[in-house]
Amino acid sequence: MKIVFLLCACISIIAVIAICLFIFLNGVPAIGEIGIFEFIFGTHWKPAANEYGIFPMIVGSIYVTAGAIAIGVPIGLLTAIFLAKYCPKKIYKLIKPLINLLASVPSIIYGFFCLVVIVPVMQSITHTSGKGILTTSILLGVMILPTIINTAESSIRAVPDMYYEGALALGATKERSIIKTVIPAAKSGIMSGIILAVGRAIGETMAVVMVAGNQAVIPNSITSGVRTLTSNIVMEMGYASGLHREALIGTAVVLFVFILIINVCFSLVVRKKEK
Amino acid sequence: MSKFKTYLKHPFSLILLALIILCAFITVASVIFIICYILINGIPNLSLDLFSPKYNSENVSMLPAIINTVSVTLLTLIIAVPVGIFSAIYLVEYAKRGSKIVKVMRVTTETLAGIPSIVFGLFGFLAFVLALGWGYSMIAGVLTLVLMVLPTIIRTTEEALLAVPDTYREGSFGLGAGKLRTIFKIILPSAIPGILSGVILAIGRIVGESAALIFTAGTVAETATSLMSSSRTLSVHLYCLLTEGLYTKQAYATAVVLLLLVLIINGISNFVARKLAKA
User: Does the pLDDT of residue B270 top 70, yes or no?
Assistant: First the structure.
């Protein structure tokens, strides 16, 4: 029976290796054929004309992720402070399940909601199509909230009360004590939450593809449409063939490398915290 | 009143306090708004026709998609739950703590958990649909989802097993039970609530998943008759309705059903978690 347990344990190891192999073996030759420089820094994505430059998508992914962080982190962090330091127990019992609910709403529902609510509002404010960096950032900002709130809250709670009480005793106000003593002490936990959130934002697909606009050009303003790495894959995979399909898998390779970097950063931060 | 005066002396603190309350309010308001908006706009669009057993372009019935969702979820769990639990048993009960395989497993489950669902979908497409030649099929989707939910199940089971006190193990060994018997008769039963919460989390992920399924299980809107037939789940159904752009009302109705499903699953998991906290 021990062997059976061991074999099962090996499945997830094999899975990771298989995923890496399949994605890299199918994607890397195409990147080689297109030319790594042309592929990553090429600004034209025109499969019909055999031009495969994914630079606009890389920029798009980075923009919307940065936007999501800019919106999600302050709101999430302050909400976590509220939950950990201000919230009365009765209200906490109501709010906490709601925030967990936010984490379990399927991304397709987020996309749908954003499409029918936020996009029309953006349309009337900016007089554009309403789909673009700003809309996507708001959407992703809300989607990463539970990740940030939960990690930030637990790391704020893990800070010994003495720090906070010491600051209070020195005459600092409650808010000042939190910002100057508790948050710096909880920094690495909060950081790991933010890294997780970056991973989630950059990998999000179905919600983004509905509201990003999906033009494969480098955006020139905050309201112009973007295409992310993920939406590039999901939009064209269905009908692509030959080099076009391989270029899409190459897009996944780039996305995968991003994710691996994020994972490494995450484990570095966590390990540092444990020390 | 004195509190108010201190705040007047420290405008920074006052502003911060206002921001903290504002942000908490924004968070809570956005949850309530999203859920209520979908429910209020969707429920009037629910009609009996949408639950007829046949899908066609005049009546985009979601019943086949619901049946497919249930079968995909069950099939995925049938494979993922034993594999996940067995992996966790190996890690907790057999492997030496801090040994190489434990470290490798920790890294791989972490990596697996961080991979975006579209990459899983692409892998499923390359491996199951193309390389194994299964075409768009339910089994390809199921296997892809198994890999996706494995880390969740392994991690929660691991935690649940670690939470079982060592005295249980020692007591069982002391009474002369073997290792295997101890695991199945003593340790697993007391770890069940924790394992269950992981399984429920996994169900939620399976039901909500769309990116990993589009290129593996495909988008055929009929009830799957075999493991090899292409079938769309409810989430994929919603995506298809939205991209076709002709069926806004039906999309609202589908979103409501999907959201209700998720709310119910979430409610059950809260219930289990509360039971767990009491036990």
Answer: yes
A75 close contact with B: CB closer than 8 A? yes
Scored b (16 or more CB within 10 A) or e, B85-123 reads bbbbbbbbbbbeeeeebbeebeebbbbbbbbbbbbbbbb
A4 CB within 8 Å of a chain B CB: yes
Contacts of A61 (CB under 8 A, 6+ apart): A202, A228, A229, A230, A255, A258
Place of tokens 């992981």: B198
**Phi, psi angle pair for A31, to nearest 5°:** -60, -40
Q: What angle do CA A148, B41, A101 make, to 5 degrees?
A: 25
CA distance linking residue A40 with residue A13, whole number of Å? 30
Taking the C-alpha atoms of residue A219 and residue B59, their distance in angstroms, rounded to an integer, is 40
Got the DSSP string for B142-179? HHHHHHHHHHHHHHHHHHHHHHS-HHHHHHHHHTT--H
Place of tokens 């994710």: A259
Residue identified by tokens 């890999």 is B147
Q: What is the pLDDT of residues A243-257, one digit of tens each?
A: 888 899 999 999 999
d(CA A255, CA A243): 18
Residue A72, CA distances (Å) to A140, A143, A208, B176 in order: 8, 8, 16, 56
What angle, rounded to 10 degrees, do the helices at A2-34 and B138-163 form? 130
Q: HSE (CB half, 13 Å, CA atoms) of B269?
A: 22
Residue A137, both tokens: 């950032």
**Cα separation of A200 and A197, whole Å?**
5
Token couple for B216 = 């593996």
Output the six-digit token pair for A261.
Answer: 């970097």
**CB distance B118–A260 less than 8 Å?**
no
| B217 DSSP assignment | T
CB contact under 8 A, B210 and A107: yes
- Residue in A104, A107, A209 to test binding to B, most B beta-carbons within 10 Å: A104
**Cα pseudo-dihedral A138, A190, A104, B38, rounded to 10:** -30
Q: What is the pTM of this model?
A: 0.90
Domains of chain A, CATH where assigned: 58-237 (1.10.3720.10)
R_g over Cα of chain B? 24
Query: Quick check: B156 and B196 in contact, CB under 8 A?
Result: no
ipTM of the modeled complex: 0.89
Strand partners, A226: A213
Disruptive mutation site among B14, B15, B120, B123 for chain A (greatest number of A CBs within 10 Å): B123
Chain B partners of A117 at a C-beta cutoff of 8 Å?
37
- In angstroms, rounded to a whole number, what is the distance separating the alpha carbons of residues B90 and B108? 15
Answer yes or no: is pLDDT of A147 > 60: yes
Read off the pLDDT of residues A68-99 as tens digits, 9 standing for 90 and up: 999 999 999 999 999 998 989 999 988 988 89
